[in-house]
Amino acid sequence: MHIVVCIKQVPDSAQIRVHPVTNTIMRQGVPTIINPYDLFSLEEALRLRDQLGGKVTVITMGPKMAIEALKKCISYGADDAILLTDKVFAGSDTLATSFALASAIAKIGETNPVDMVFCGKQTIDGDTAQVGPGIARRLHMQQLTYVAQVEKVDLDKGEIVVHRRSEGGVQVLATRLPCLVTMLEGSNEMRYGSMDDLFRAARYEVAEWDHKAAGITVTAQCGLKGSPTVVKKVFAPPAKAVKAEVIKTEGKTPREVADALLTSVFAKHPKLEMEIGQ
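That's the Protein FixA sequence above. Prediction below.
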């Protein structure tokens, strides 16, 4: 069984800053991490490989600095890693990104057929949850999104059974392979890398593919040219000018504190007092 896991190197959301003049995200000096949701997909892929045998290939699209994230995946136990890096990919939105990744996965499948593709449910920088389904659509794969548990994979029958979380509860779904799965957070716990994998990651040479290596002949579908999405503005919500009112409680009984609170609330919302009185 061959599983491909799509990951993304993203800015640490806890330290993202917005430029006060240009209103764009300031990435300089901001540490990067593997998108947390992608780690749940990686762990699930590794578990299936350990259980059923096979190979796990990790792929991402980004600048050369993303090699660090791919080597981290190797240290967790992934078998191979590929970085899509090319100037023609710059400025890609979710449509262009899914095109590039799908093209690369199809190219991988020419020499080693792909049985499953795993993605995180979304990334913490874009929050669109569109790339995974976009890849599935382009590769004509069945897609299972927001999966909380992979119950069973039967390679003989070419079937997979998963638990998908929905607004109304949990759906138990079955479909045929090959398929694409997006995993939810909390579906598993990321393992620690073994010493052998850590040493292998340090020596590992990540394969770097440009658009030609990925089998892309029409570059108009990549990068800014292939991205119909336009981000007009990015901004931080303004701080509220209203300050919290402080009610002093020293030397007051609980009843007196409650009366003071209600008096303050009713003073600002007189209709509320009338509604309660009715």
